[in-house]
Give the backbone structure.
Amino acid sequence: MAFPTDPSGLGPMPPERFAELTELKAARAATPPPVLLEVDPPRTPTISTPFAREILAAALERRLTGGEVLALFEEASLNDLGDAAQRLRLKRTDPEVVTYIIDRNVTYTNLCYADCQFCAFNRHQGDGDDYLLEIDQILEKCRTVDQAGGNQILLQGGHHPKMRLPYYEEMLRAIKAAWPNMWIHGFSPSEIQHFARLNGLSHREVLSRLKEAGLDSIPGGGAEILSDRVRKILAPGKTMSAEWIEIMETGHAVGLPSTVTMMFAHIETYAERVEHLLRARASQDRTGGYTAFIPWTFQPANTPLQNDPALKAAVEAQGFLGSVDYLRTLAISRIALDNFPNLQASWVTQGKAVGQLTLYYGANDLGSLMMEESVVSKAGTVHALTRADLDEMIVGAGFRPVLRDNGYRHLT
Ligand code: SF4
């Protein structure tokens, strides 16, 4: 295998990094081999069963078991789920307010050899459009956030095979030196794991050093579905479920709060969605360090998965895609996660109309008015909104729009 020279001038890629990653992927594929389940497409219930109605009534009073949450996926109708989720949302958060944040995604590199099956964003050296941002380029992007009245940078990127921890520390220090109040939400668990491996450090050492350099919180990216069967098939080169959770909990221990995402509607079963919800809920019980839960749907365009006939067929056979599935899953998340105050809607993947409807299916936050987004947009998602759009959605749904920071403190 040839290792082309990096056009950024960093020199050839170290072969041992390729060997290590290749070994890791092979080991995960072998122990035990992940199975692509052949399941019947799940039926979407149009009317709730009596059992589902009983569970929904119970959810208003107590925590549900995993079996009960699974029954909601299988037996509860969209409108009944929405009714229960809305009641719980009004109890658990400010009933008059819907929040959002203004920020910008700064994706520092697209060079990454983890090669997740659902990723349309990563590139290899020599692809021609691989990049690594200089610190000055990152600062220029931060300047536009400040000028637009924004207060947060979301820093994320591929697993660059050569950049060492000082590059990321310098990045954080430079941003904080220029804008001390800019909240830096950065580096998801798989990036932290990658930094630890590359630098021969523990997760705690990496997280502590990044916090010391200016990191404020950790985004919940890369959670996908916290079930190892799914992860071994779709993303064998990055964190498995327990590692993802362990890194988040270590982050909480050193003073870095975080969020949790859930990317669904691909090869997972309803039971695996429940596993994800229960892992998130149990972790929140242990640390209380999560500020929000953010479910969103898989965007298939341009992803490697489309080139694998078996995987492509598995996704298509599930029949999950659609806003009904999204809204049902959002509502079930609100119902099941009794220890997450904030549930974030994904208008980026659902568009403005369904984005507004989320406010009646458990969401109390419209996430970010993203000035730049470069990950799901590569997978074909093109929704973009202005601040006026978000305010209009919120007011039209009967709520009051409030700008927040990443600690969910109200700013307006
Ligand atoms: S999802 Fe992240 S880790 Fe996976 S290939 Fe894309 S950039 Fe790399």
Observations:
- Confidence is low (pLDDT under 50) at residues 1-12.
- Residues 270-287 form the longest helix (18 residues).
- Residues 112, 114-116, 119, 121-122, 158-159, 190, 235, 238 surround iron/sulfur cluster (CB under 6 Å).
- The first strand starts at residue 5 and ends at 6.
